[in-house]
Amino acid sequence: MLSMALMTFKEVIRRRIILVIAALSLAFLALFGTGVHYGFKEVAQHQGPLVTMFAQQFLSLGLYFGSFIVAFLAIMAAVGTISNEIESGTIYAIVPRPVRRSEIIAGKFLGYGFMLCAFAALFYLAIILIIQLNTGLSVPVKPATLGLFCLQPFVLLALSLFGTTFLSTLANGIAVFMLYAIGVVGGMMEQIGYLAGSKVLIQIGIVSSLIMPADSIYRKIVYSLFSAPGISLTNMLGPFGSGSEPSAWMLLYTGLYILCFLALAVRIFSKRDI
Amino acid sequence: MIIETGNLTKMYGKKVGCSEICLSVEEGQIFGFLGPNGAGKSTLVKVLVGLLFPTSGTAKILGRPLGDLGARRKIGFLPENFRYQEWLTGEELLHFHASLYRMSPAEKRRRIPVVLEQVGLGGKERQKVGAYSKGMQQRVGLACALLPDPELIFLDEPTSALDPLGRRDVRKIMIDLRRRGKTIFLNSHLLSEIELICDQVAIIHKGKIVSMGNLEEMLSGTVEVEMQVEGQTPQMLAELSALSRKMAVSGRFIRQSLDDRKDVAALAGVVVRNGGSLFGLRVGQISLEELFINLIQGGGGKRAVNGFDDV
């Protein structure tokens, strides 16, 4: 399993995936930082609670698109993990070796998981740093929220690994992106539901969170960051905010979701002909 | 027996991959597995190495059931349609496969240079696999298969990308492995290669084994005779046909397959007795290619070979 994990990690480095990610992430952060710097400069000329609200909106905007980029990376990295290796023939020399097929899946999960975790953590810290330096907003670095930010890609990683065991790379990519979109749109609808007092929209949001819980983790992070005393609920509303905190049960559900799809990936791969 | 299968069957839906395969391969030999394209050769190899799951039947490798990890540690496999991680160097690729075999660092240090030399890639281990020629990739694949010094090696078309010198090198490796008591299961289209080095052969057609046994015995079972006869009569041809397993006539030339070498003299007797003139008589043994074609095309009397008409 460790050999597979190391090989997966090595692949990410050798195939310059990490280089491309780093370059594009820096471009994003530079754009975001510039936007925050000049945007906040304009806003800061006014006085009052509006300034803090803008700072928080910038933070949630950064975290939202950060989550999106990490999710995108998780899908792109893992979507063809098994299907690509079957198509190219690489897997023919690996499966007959004295390794369990479950170890191959677990190794790939760990390899990509480590890379995504490190990337997500750096991204999270970079966004907080940009906000603090440009707006002066004090954002506490809570290990729990950092952990949640790192947990997000694991949802998509497990789902992508599940799909790649029986779908072609393209079909799996489309399926996982669509599911992610359902989660994102459902999450936004839920927030609109809170603003408009629409139970139907809130219900749609809950169902979509069950189908794809990645967005609810983001909402939990935002709620956790902005739930300090003195912050009004209105600051948490809007498409990038969080009107209500997803419960601990939702986190448990997310954990089970990851384990369940990982177990299904192992089960399908262990029984399939190659 | 190092490989033993009982009615091993693999179906792809309703399509037969291989059917009721009963194989017994003794250790210390090169076992040739032959068959036309789509006959089920690769299917059987894939079942034996754990890439495919059998639909029914039993199989044991090194006395253990299919998929046993302990047995797999003693098995090497070079797949046919393989590709290795092109972004790795040859040495890194071998390190990775050595890790999959759970070899210790000391074992890796010892075995990797040995197999690199064995396959003729010594000094080229720092190059990226993607920069290797097709032949070199086949060699590095063979090196991966030889890493654990396996008891049993499955080679699926191991020389398909190699030039004649490369093929000779691989033949030498196989012969050397047999000398050291290893067993090789060789899946190949190259009949001449099989004929040169295999001890036992199995021929598969439409998913079923149509012939299996000691190669020497299989080839010595039939004597091929070619005569040049003038003054052929229907009576003469009928008598000649009665003596042979298969007979074909092309002008003055009569080609026959006999079960027994002793019948050669009787053929000459038939020609002379029926007033014919015998201008030439050549006795030979059936080649593996002829045996293969006869078996695949349903045995004797079905096809004219090399311009001969069947009688």
* Biggest sheet descriptor of chain A: none
Counted beta strands of chain B: 16
CATH class of the largest domain in chain B: Alpha Beta
Report the β-strand fraction of chain B as a percent range.
25-35%
Name the descriptors.
heterodimer; A: 274 residues; mainly alpha; globular; B: 311 residues; alpha+beta; Rossmann fold; Alpha-Beta Plaits; 2 domains; six-stranded mixed β-sheet; five-stranded antiparallel β-sheet; 16 strands; 35% helix; elongated; disordered C terminus
Q: Briefly, what is this?
A:
Chain A is mainly alpha-helical and 274 residues long.
How is the secondary structure organized here?
The complex is a heterodimer of chains A (274) and B (311).
Chain A: H1 2-14, H2 17-43, H3 49-78, H4 83-88, H5 101-135, H6 143-164, H7 169-196, H8 199-211, H9 214-226, H10 248-271
Helix pairs in contact in A: 1-5, 2-3, 2-5, 3-5, 3-6, 3-7, 3-9, 5-6, 5-10, 6-7, 6-9, 6-10, 7-8, 7-9
Chain B: E1 3-12, E2 15-21, E3 24-25, E4 30-34, H1 41-49, E5 56-61, E6 64-65, H2 69-72, E7 75-78, H3 90-100, H4 105-118, H5 134-146, E8 152-156, H6 164-179, E9 183-187, H7 191-197, E10 200-205, E11 208-214, H8 215-220, E12 223-230, H9 234-243, E13 246-250, E14 253-258, H10 263-273, E15 277-285, H11 288-296, E16 309-310
Parallel strand pairs in B: 4-9, 4-10, 7-8, 8-9
Antiparallel strand pairs in B: 1-2, 1-3, 1-5, 5-6, 10-11, 12-14, 12-15, 13-14, 13-16
Note down, in words, how this protein is organized.
The complex is a heterodimer of chains A (274) and B (311). Chain A has 10 helices and no strands. Chain A is mostly helical and 274 residues long. Chain A has one domain (2-271). In chain A, helix 6 (143-164) runs parallel beside helix 10 (248-271), helix 7 (169-196) packs antiparallel against helix 8 (199-211) and helix 7 (169-196) packs across helix 9. The model of chain A has no long low-confidence stretch (mean pLDDT 87). Chain B is α+β, with helices and mostly antiparallel strands. Chain B folds into 2 domains: 3-216, Rossmann fold, CATH 3.40.50; 221-310, Alpha-Beta Plaits (2-Layer Sandwich), CATH 3.30.70. Chain B contains 11 helices and 16 strands. In chain B, strand 5 and strand 6 (64-65) form a beta hairpin. Chain B is elongated. The model of chain B is unreliable at 299-311 (pLDDT under 50). The interface between A and B is medium-sized, with 23 and 29 residues.
